[in-house]
Amino acid sequence: MNFRVGQGYDVHRLAEGETLWLGGILIPHIKGTVAHSDGDVVIHAICDALLGAAKLRDIGTHFPDNSNEFKDIDSKILLKRSHELIKTKGYEIVNIDCTISAQQPKLKPFIPEMEMVMAKVLEIDVEQISVKATTTEKLGFEGREEGISVNAVVLLKKI
Fold it and tell me: How far is CA 150 from the centre of its chain?
């Protein structure tokens, strides 16, 4: 069997008055992500990991942040399209693992819903996707609540 590993990383600045979409769900918080799209850093990192594993470059290549077509777009659409792209190259998802780095808000209560929403979009079992959250102990831009980052890893196999 042919397996491929992909890694993705995304960062967005946080600001008051913006919405905070993570893993396809709206998280109640006083700050949200500043972005061209809905700013869902979880989905963006996973898209990059999927595309990279299939040697399809990155999210910016397929969904440029200077295109009006993607202005305020729901990132679940980008996730679905990224999944369709990897399928055209003959790959399917084995598993996805990602870690959100944010000081606030506390994300643990939202993780099961994030996993379910993304699994549904990707048409995979919820057991194939893992979301974790951590703080940076008030260090760095995440710790100062200036931004949020996500690291994602995926394993694909040739169909």
Answer: 7
* 33-47: burial string, b at 16+ Cβ within 10 Å, e else: bebebbbbbbbbbbb
Virtual torsion, Cα 45, 133, 73, 32, nearest 10 deg? -130
Distance of CA 66 to the CA centre of its chain: 19
The structure tokens 């972005």 sit at 35
In the 8-state DSSP scheme, what is residue 112?
H
What element of type H or E holds 151? strand 147-158
Instruction: Compute the average pLDDT of residues 43-50.
Output: 98
Mean pLDDT for 100-123 is 98
Name the token pair of 142: 């995440």
Closest CA to 50 of 159, 156, 157: 156
